[in-house]
Amino acid sequence: MKNVGEFEIYYRGYILIRLKTIGTEWKVVEKLTGLESMEPNEEWKITYATPVYGGWDVLVECSFSKLKDLDKIVTFCRVDKDLSQWIEETTTLMGSRNDHP
């Protein structure tokens, strides 16, 4: 288990983003970088975001302690007023924990 900020992180996820309009990469990165939950029972944070080349336009790394927290992050990317105008599609990958037998 690794500490990030003030909470323990169990999982790490990656969100691949394809944009509707090329040229909005840095707007998406700026909006997502450092975003974290302010709710008392949620422990998640976006730890890194960067534009990338290839089939996807932006790569986002997030850390979270509960699977439902990942749902909140992905949903935010899909329904936020600005992000929903810029993002066409997402694919979410989740890392496995290293303490599984």
Would you write up a description of this structure?
With 101 residues, this protein is an alpha+beta fold. It has a single domain, classed as Alpha-Beta Plaits, CATH 3.30.70. 27% of the residues lie in helices and 38% in strands. It contains 3 helices and 6 strands. A 4-stranded antiparallel beta sheet has the order 4-5-3-6. It is globular. The two termini are 15 Å apart. 22% of the residues are buried. The mean pLDDT is 88.
Which helices and strands occur, and which strands form pairs?
Elements: E1 2-4, E2 7-9, E3 11-19, H1 25-32, E4 44-51, E5 58-64, H2 67-79, H3 81-86, E6 87-94
Based on Cα principal axes, name the global outline.
globular
Task: Report the helical percentage.
Answer: 25-40%
Whole-number average pLDDT?
88
Q: What kind of sheet is the major sheet?
A: 4 strands, antiparallel
Instruction: Tell me which CATH architecture applies here.
Output: 2-Layer Sandwich
In brief, what are we looking at here?
This protein is 27% helix and 38% strand. With 101 residues, the protein is α+β, with helices and mostly antiparallel strands.
Fill in the keyword field for this structure.
single chain; 101 residues; alpha+beta; Alpha-Beta Plaits; 4-stranded antiparallel beta sheet; two-stranded antiparallel ribbon; 6 strands; 27% helix; globular
